[in-house]
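Hi R.,

As promised on Friday, here is the backbone we talked about, encoded as structure tokens. Could you run it through your design pipeline when you get a chance and send me back a sequence?
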């Protein structure tokens, strides 16, 4: 026979829980405000340049470490190209439409400042031809044709994401206040600067202005701007659109092409992973802390949750 709990007792328990939770939030907010009050934060509402030269992967970790977007992969590759690790080339159709973007590696991954950049370069090195070149088009074909290659792609993606999180932890962006993880004052100030830079980037997109889009677009996905929001019909812009004489337009087109292609490749690899019940058999994640990081964890960090807003 089921035990009946009086409705009055349920109400008392609910009220007690509510008051306790409200008190905990008040104590946390008081402690957080006291900590924040000892720091002078940026007053910039819009910032027309990147606050730092760090990789978009680490910016993504700072901005919202639990929601690192797929596009951080092509973003970081374009960041490396901008740093001189890759040379970009393209194949155009007769109508001057972008067909293929090629990455030619001209620096070794050992020159990378952070280990997550090395992991990324070593991952895509496996797809290079004898000229040290790869394209997302060729990778898509390989992943689509081979479940083994799709499996390796899937695992390499998570190796990269986990390495971002490991590098991010070394930066000590987060501290604990009243048992909650929040951004430190220095990190929160940098977060505010990136938010101000995001406003500038959004204004470029709204105005279809590609004059300064090169660096901006590298950080778009790290700041929560989707590829669909980035799409612009440049034929309607104020500039004369030409692949030959407008580097910013070309760089923008390279990024957009690769971002959507990578999403397709990841979906193929992910579908192959989920459709094969034996996919993970024999895989060893002991070296990359997959079990600790792949689900995103239970943090409240990044730009959302209890990141430290007043």
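Update: got your reply. Pasting your designed sequence below so it's all in one thread:
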């Amino acid at each position: 026979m089921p035990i009946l709990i009086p409705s009055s007792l349920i109400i008392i328990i609910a009220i007690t829980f509510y008051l306790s939770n409200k008190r905990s939030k008040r104590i946390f907010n008081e402690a957080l405000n006291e900590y924040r009050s000892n720091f002078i934060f940026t007053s910039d509402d819009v910032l027309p340049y990147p606050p730092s030269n760090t990789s978009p992967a680490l910016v993504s970790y700072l901005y919202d470490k639990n929601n690192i977007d797929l596009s951080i992969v092509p973003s970081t590759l374009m960041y490396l190209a901008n740093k001189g690790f890759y040379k970009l080339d393209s194949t155009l159709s007769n109508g001057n439409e972008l067909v293929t973007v090629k990455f030619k590696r001209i620096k070794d991954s050992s020159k990378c400042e952070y280990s997550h950049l090395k992991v990324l370069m070593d991952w895509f090195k496996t797809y290079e031809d004898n000229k040290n070149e790869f394209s997302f088009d060729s990778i898509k074909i390989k992943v689509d044709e081979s479940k083994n290659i799709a499996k390796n792609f899937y695992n390499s993606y998570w190796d990269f994401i986990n390495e971002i999180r490991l590098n991010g932890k070394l930066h000590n962006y987060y501290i604990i206040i009243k048992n909650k993880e929040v951004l430190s004052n220095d990190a929160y100030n940098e977060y505010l600067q990136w938010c101000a830079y995001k406003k500038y980037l959004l204004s470029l997109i709204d105005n279809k202005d590609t004059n300064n889009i090169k660096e901006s677009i590298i950080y778009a996905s790290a700041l929560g701007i989707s590829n669909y929001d980035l799409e612009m019909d440049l034929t309607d812009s104020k500039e004369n659109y030409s692949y030959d004489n407008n580097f910013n337009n070309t760089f923008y087109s390279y990024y957009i092409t690769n971002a959507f292609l990578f999403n397709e490749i990841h979906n193929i690899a992910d579908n192959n992973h989920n459709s094969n019940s034996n996919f993970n058999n024999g895989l060893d994640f002991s070296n990359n802390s997959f079990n600790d990081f792949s689900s995103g964890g239970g943090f409240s960090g990044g730009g959302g949750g209890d990141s430290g807003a007043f």
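One thing I noticed while checking it: Strands lie at 86-92, 98-105, 133-135, 174-177, 180-183.

Thanks again,
M.
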